[in-house]
Amino acid sequence: MRIACVQMDIVFGEPEANFNQVSAYLAEASRKGADTIVLPEMWNTGYALTKLETLADGSNRTVNFLKEFAKANQVNIVGGSVSIIKDSGFYNTMFVVNKDGELVSEYDKAHRFGLMDEHIHLEEGNGLGTFELEGVTCGGVICYDIRFPEWIRAQALNGAKVIFVPAEWPEARIDHWKILLQARAIENQCFIVAVNRVGSDPKNAFGGSSMVIAPWGELRLDMAMQEGIGYADIDLDEVEEVRKRIPVFTDRREALYSSFQPSKKQ
Ligand SMILES: O=C(O)CCC(=O)C(=O)O
């Protein structure tokens, strides 16, 4: 599977400019033979959370745009995430479409990041976010979600062999990003494809470092601060090889772990 990671700057609060940028990146990546193109988090609006009433997608625009491109160009798109409006409020949502232009996943970010006011402006998701792409079970989580190892583990236990992570991760904590992602790949013995943005918004400078990490933990792509598209070819047989070499999933002791769950506070 040839993966293309779109490490772009995002124009704060300007969906039109961002749709134009993403169109150009999708066209370039598909021209260069990508099977699966991955976008960053909240690429339509950036973190313009106080303006979501007017800016967030309430019309299926993003889904239709991704579906049409995917079908016309026979490419899978892990559509990063976008801000959208549903009946119950605003969400930070990842759409994934396959080469036939079918929507195979709609995942709402499960853990809201307080340092960036998500808990004030966004609703939290409750779905797991695993999906099939060309017969391979994949997972998707968004940015802050990677700080919750049990959440990524739940995807791996549900069969995910490749986990996609779109993000807007600040440069100030980019060491955490790199270490957490590598740990998530090693402990779950799966590929991690993580796409962060570059550039800045009024509150944060972002740290790039989009990466493809193999199930043994090696970096197959590290984009550092380079703006543009990075490519990596991944061989899914590696997942089985690593899982055979060190059979973590066979050796897990679920009953033991649950016997030590802390009792609820009164
Ligand atoms: O966990 C972090 O340090 C960054 C998380 C974040 O930026 C986000 O979830 O948008």
From TrEMBL:
Keywords: Hydrolase. Residues 1-236 form the CN hydrolase domain. Signal peptide: none annotated. GO terms for molecular function: hydrolase activity. CDD domains: nitrilase_5. It holds the Pfam family CN_hydrolase. The keyword Cytoplasm does not apply. Belongs to the carbon-nitrogen hydrolase superfamily. NIT1/NIT2 family. This is Carbon-nitrogen family hydrolase. It comes from Planococcus shenhongbingii.
